[in-house]
Automatic annotation (TrEMBL):
InterPro entries: DNA/RNA_pol_sf, Rev_trsase/Diguanyl_cyclase, SulA_CellDiv_inhibitor, UmuC. Keywords: DNA damage. This is DNA polymerase Y family protein. Residues 29-144 form the UmuC domain. It comes from the Bacteria. Belongs to the DNA polymerase type-Y family.
Amino acid sequence: MLWLCLRLPTLPLEALGAHHSTGMLALTRNNIIVMANTSAQQAGIASGMSVASAMSLCSALELRPRDHQREQQCLANIALWAYRFSGDVCLCPPNAVLLELGASLRLFKNMARLYSKFISAFRRRGLSVQLGIAHTPLAAELLSHQNISPTKLVSSAGQIRQEALHNALHALPTELLPLDAKTLNTLQEMGMHQLGSLQTLPRAALERRFGKAIAIVLAKLHGELPDIRPQFTPPETFNAQRHFDGGLHSKQQLRFPISALLSELEHYLRLRQCLNRDMQWEFHYLDGSREAWSLALSQRHFDRCSLIELVVLRLESLSLQGPVETLSLRCEQFIGNEQHSDQLFDTANSSKQQEKTSQVLDKLRLRLGAQRCHLFSLQDAHLPELNWVLRDAHTSTPTRSPRHGQPATGKQASLPMSDKLLRPNWLCHPPENISETSQGLFWQGELQLLQGPERFDGQWWQQRQTRDYYIARHQHGALCWVFKDCLNRRWYLHGFFG
């Protein structure tokens, strides 16, 4: 096996979007400096320094509290990105991710190509990364501190260069070993500053002197004992952020980070084989205030370009309250991808046409409002006036024909017969009264029956309805749908054919 460790040494700064800050900035915890950016380091600010000492050296130093929660969220996003290369990904808090590269090498067929893929991805995100590669998870994790290029330790075919790996492990500082502080201090006092000097000693003697922990660590380091790590799984909700030093002042500047967040969402949905039904956006302004807004979606496939148009359309109705420091996107509602096959020449119900319809509905809902967009939908009712119901355009589910090769059952089996029956395009609500005389039927003119009757008999469990429907021609030439109520013996006009 071949393990790669991705270590982010400046993750606390990067999680806050402050790693590229031009001003002097430092992160604090319990009044102690835990990390400083490059400008602050050049002014003499160092980790472990007290806040009072740091401010005495640089009065213009900006101090921010360290945000562990945001760091772990950022680390989880890196793991989610790495999940596209390997199904075996592990989190190594506080600032590293491990992944097994066997499948990735079979895909890319070249270690140099895979290495450049990782480096270019981190550069696009503006993140600094150190890589470590080895035959065991622990060895890769420790070598990532040295940031040795993987191409020096592994051949292009993915074979480990044993001599180079042996030399790199021997040069590792012993203070990097995952041992308790007392053991590490004792090793330093004994002059064992590098792993090579420790490995020259008998394993049994080390175990007697320091306990079993050191023997277990060395065994895991060389693959003599299994090093089982909890695997990373994609979270049930999607959550991503973009931070901007100094803030963004216009909606046009937000378009690029919106596109980047949607790209991350697309990757997440591909991993989980699902579609999102919502997008919850939030602006974090420089003054500390927040503004949340959301989008409900009805798409059948993920289309990043159309989603960008929807988001920009939604932004038109918003006014920025100030410079945007952080843009976050969260999705909580998901459905499974629809897996279906269309007939070769089935163009009327093609998925592309359905997707265009969904996109148009989403745009209409944004422009007109969610409460103003509705669809007529079929429902299971015997009487014609009850067959159609007005539903919300977002929640209404269009009916689909049976899949090719599958027999129609139940209500679907009756559709071919109902298609042969003529039905009007327009219904009168309520039905209009028709006058019946000895000369015939009259409704704003004479009606001539052409076809019928067709019996409707139902609603016996509520109030029975028995009707005989006919197709009639009005004296002005229009075709009408009329019926005779068999219970009260009266005639009614129920609709017109287009």
